[in-house]
Amino acid sequence: MKKLINDPDHVLADALRGIEAAHADLRVDHENRIIYRATPKDHGTVALVSGGGSGHEPLHGGFVGFGMLDAACAGEVFTSPTPDQMQEATKTVDRGAGVLHIVKNYTGDVMNFEMAAELAAMEASVDVRTVVVNDDVAVQDSLYTAGRRGVGLTVLLEKIVGAAAEQGRGLDDIVALAEKVNGDGRSMGMALTSCTVPAAGKPTFDLPEDQMEIGIGIHGEPGRHRVPMGTASEIAQQLVEPILGDLDFGSSPTIVMLNGMGGTPLIELYLMYGEVAAILEKHGVTVARSLVGNYITSLDMAGCSVTVLRADDEIVSLWDAPVETSGLRWGR
Amino acid sequence: MSTTDTITIEGFTAWLAAFRDRVTEQRSYLTELDSAIGDADHGANMARGMAAVMEKVGASPATTADELFKTVGMTLVTSVGGASGPLYGTFFLRLGMTAGAVAECDAAALSSALRAGLDGVVARGKAEAGDKTMFDAMAPALEAMDAAITSGASLAEATAAARDAAAAGRDATETLVARKGRASYLGERSAGHLDPGATSTALLFDALAEVTAS
To answer: Distance between CA A264 and CA A193 in Å, rounded?
Structure first.
């Protein structure tokens, strides 16, 4: 598999250099692999730290900046960052009002952020709280799994909670809002192809031309079902139905994201969004805001995911609030 | 048991080096196993982590077990990431705390230190028997080791028993449906593959048996 890399073992370090070169409003701590704002937010405001394995760009580094995250910790490709990185990021961005850790529900991420929070508690200097995002309806939340994965909703949560933090709301409020967003959103993804981890050099799994994976996560792991390839309209059905079956959106307006997995052209993502919007309309679900593009990816995987979030006036106004990051930018 | 039937700091260091060699040699194999039911990084992560461990250990040689394994555990925690970092890291940290400030361990002391390591893995990962994790190789290994010690086996015999039980535990993960970690997302599709974590744990006990063989 051809890749634009120098050395499979240096992908992350080299990419961080590029991020620093491209964005004057970001700083990169190369030793600790932390991306943070060049201009810290005001003293007395809650700071947001997220992080995870690399390969999901723009998540999370692309969402560092005004109106979203204060810092992001980058792990190796598809590997959680480590507690010392998170601890360092937490200390870097703390403005005296506490720090929220936004963690996607994967075993490694949860364990490492847990250890980071333990370290922070030992130093007793920073009030750290955690929200674990788990929005993936493909996984049954039961004793028999590690729980639902954190996927697309993470993007919406970082935007909405980031806006609230920028307004100066207190840590308890911020935590409650983050939990509300997590409870009110659901996602479902599919893959047309596998992806190639640079260090592995070949696709993580084989997916024949006439097959697709339904219920994938964001790490190139196979999904829950392998089914025959369908039309965009049929695929949209297979993504939206499980979401609507899992959460009653009632008459509430929603924010909908049609996210590309990294290897699918925007024209197909828009085509898919059209199908998704039509199905939602048929079910009486109103869409207040929408987002189409590559926001939480799985390297070069082809495919997409759908996220639907219940959004009252407060959520919509936080969504509309100004944001200035390399991944999302409006209103400022 | 003779007074020389112990594992020393040099022995522990040789154990770590032998584990490093195994995960490095089998890097591709571990990654291949992880590709089937995980995210294709276990081999690379373990190889990177153990390389960092041996570099640290070589740079500042420890004189006691607690010191040595604290370095090992913290290095794994801070250099591996994923689930393997906290799990193997916690294993070595707890192992060292229980072994204590000693320069050598006999079979019984080694076994109880390893047991504390396993307890740490359980506390961190919350895995139980049959979840298709490293627990399924480690727990039977320690049971076999304790049984051997109780029946008067030497250190070499006890670690050989642990090695064999870890390998059997690893093999038994093939038919299991994963209930923890990323493989659990696959449900029934996770059956039919060896668990990568149980496989690297079997290498850990294989390395221990090798360095303690008389």
So the answer is: 10
